[in-house]
Amino acid sequence: NGGPQFPHTSAASIQLYVDGQDELDRIWSALLADGGSEVQCGWLTDRFGLSWQIIPRQFIDLMTSADESVRERVVAKMLTMTKLDIAPLEEAAASR
């Protein structure tokens, strides 16, 4: 309610943890509806200009692996994505 002189920025974002690809896809689509825009790496901006990070719990599980090479492969794959896609992230983690 600060008016147009105080627009939203990505300096503050809402993190939303989701369970699985279906929930991620549903929420992603709903937040983009009516004027939202995709950013990258699981981020989007809704129609009001609020920044969101939509994070599947599976991503957190992969990123807490004790194996540094798993974490590196998952991050490398994530950096190629806009909306996070769990299956390719899991495939990257499992690859050698």
Structure description:
- The protein is an alpha+beta fold and 96 residues long.
- The protein is 41% helix and 18% strand.
- It is elongated, with a radius of gyration of 15 Å.
- The mean pLDDT is 94.
Features:
96 residues, alpha+beta, 4-stranded mixed sheet, 4 helices, 4 strands
List the helices and strands and how they pair.
Blueprint: E1 13-18, H1 21-32, E2 37-38, E3 43-45, E4 51-56, H2 57-63, H3 68-78, H4 86-94
Parallel strand pairs: 1-4
Antiparallel strand pairs: 2-3, 3-4
Helix pairs in contact: 3-4
Q: Describe the strand arrangement of the main beta sheet, using strand numbers.
A: 1-4-3-2
C-alpha termini separation: 51 Å
Estimated radius of gyration: 15 Å
Query: What low-confidence regions span 5 or more consecutive residues with pLDDT below 50?
Result: none
What is the gist of this entry?
This protein has helices at residues 21-32, 57-63, 68-78, 86-94; strands at 13-18, 37-38, 43-45, 51-56. The chain has 96 residues and is of the alpha+beta class.
